[in-house]
Structure formats: C-alpha cells, structure tokens
Amino acid sequence: MKPDASMKLTTGRAAFLSLVVMTAGWVFPVHAGNYTPPEGCKLEVTVQNRGCTVSQIFRCEQDPQGHQRSAIFDENGLTYQSRIDAETRWIESNDPDTGIEDLLVEEAKDHASFSTLIETGRDDFDFWTESNTGERLHHVGHDELTGEKVTIDGIELEKTRFKLTTSSQNDEVLIEREGQQFINRAMGRFFGGVETMRDWTGQQQESNDSPVIFSFPGEDGFADTTPQFDCSEMLASWGGRKVSEPSL
Fold it and tell me: Any signal peptide, and if so, which residues (predicted)?
C-alpha cells in the first residue's frame, strides 16, 4: 500500500485527521515549474499520474539506507510529501494544506513489509501513526500480488490488490479503502491505481492515480511539477511525446 497523496482524508472532519508528517528542514517549491530537491538529496524519477498529480521521487544523504522521499504536486502546487523505508513502511508524511503531520509509531503488531509481499505474495499490516496534534490513527489491512504484470511507459509493474481500514484511537472506523495498485521491485515502492474510499459518514469516492509517464534524468518531463492527466483539460500529448493512457 502506498502512503502517498491518496492517503489524505480530504472531506469534513477527515481534513483534520489527514494521515501525514513532515521533517524539519524540508523546503519545497509550491508553484508549477521544475522541482529542486533539498540540499543533500537527489531526484531519481518524476512520475506523471492519472488524477492530475505528478510525483517527484528522491533520496537524501542524511536518511537511513533504503529510505525514499516523495513530493506530490497537483494543479495548485505541492499537496503532499512523505518518506518510506526499504520495507515501504510509512515513516513520515506531511500535508502542506492543513499543516497536519503524522509519524509512524515504532511499536506495531505487524509492520508493512515489501519483502514479505515479494516473497509470499501477500503482506498483512497492523500499525499506528501519531500526528502533531496528538491524534493517533490505527491502520489495518493487507496487500497481495495478483500475478498480473503490465508495462507502462517502458516500466514493468506488477498489480496488487489492497484493503485498508483506518480507525481512531477509540476504534471508530474513519476510512475504508480498497482497490488495485502497482509495485516495481527495482524501485522498491508502490504506485497508485484504481481504488474506492469510504468515510465514516458513508460518503464514497472512486479514484485513479495510476502512473502514465516515468521521466528519468535527462528525459523530457524530469523534475516537471505540472500535472498533465485528468486535469482541467486532458492533454493528449506531452513534451513532444505522444502517449496513450493504459487500460487498467
């Protein structure tokens, strides 16, 4: 399960319970343009996604080995930033819109494990996060490989199915999510897909955050912070490269 922008709880009370945390010293541009990572960090890939977002994935010298960071931009600028470890555990994240931050609680019944998913085809998780407002959230669910592989913009991805229930410290169910995502073993991370989310009021929404274009150093679109897909006007071509959206 990927702890990225889709993890944000975006309506009503949920806006104050966003699943997010930021580290001191993170400085990001909040306008469209080219992304420059913080000092000591190196941008590895820019990913244009469905759902009008673009992800900047980078690593920083000061982080433990295997950790990755991401900064996600929508039409209005920076919307989410996070850090994961080599097991794709959600270490920290931050929602610039609300200022709410969240940090992984180290003690867990069952931490997320990318290696377990790869080795067995399924990973169950049961962990807590704590926000800078003192709110504790309980996350329980699983990821499983479907056995299907797809190639998107030359990158081979494996499909996963996932389920996640997020509850308050009083065991009130706040958010239920389920759907399909992707993993790439070489990159050691998840990418978004098609999912359904329901909140405690019964409101339900469907989203598609699937990757469309991967841009590496030296390629068109690398470091671009302007999302290109499913925004106000869908662009059929981008950076001189004609693209066809994958059928998922």
Answer: 1-32
CA atoms within 13 A on the CB side of 95: 23
pLDDT at 228: 97
**What length does the chain have?**
248
Closest CA to 17 of 135, 141, 163, 103: 135
Nearest to 139 by CA among 21, 7, 5, 4: 7
Could you tell me the two tokens for 116? 């377990």
Tokens 């068109």 correspond to what residue? 220
Angle, CA 106 vertex, CA 197 and CA 17 arms, to 5°: 35
pLDDT at 239 over 60: no
pLDDT of 27 reads: 40
Strand, coil or helix: 118? helix
Confidence at residue 246, expressed as pLDDT on a 0 to 100 scale:
44
**If you search the block for the tokens 């106000």, which residue do you land on?**
232
- Comparing CA positions, the residue from 91, 95, 102 lying closest to residue 64 is 91
Query: What is the value of pTM for the model shown?
Result: 0.82
SS3 string, 32-80, reads: CCECCCCCCEEEEEEEEECCCEEEEEEEECCCCCCCEEEEEEECCEEEE
40 and 26 Cβ atoms separated by less than 8 Å: no
Nearest to 127, CA basis, from 106, 102, 113: 106
How many Cβ atoms sit within 10 Å of the Cβ of residue 104?
Answer: 23
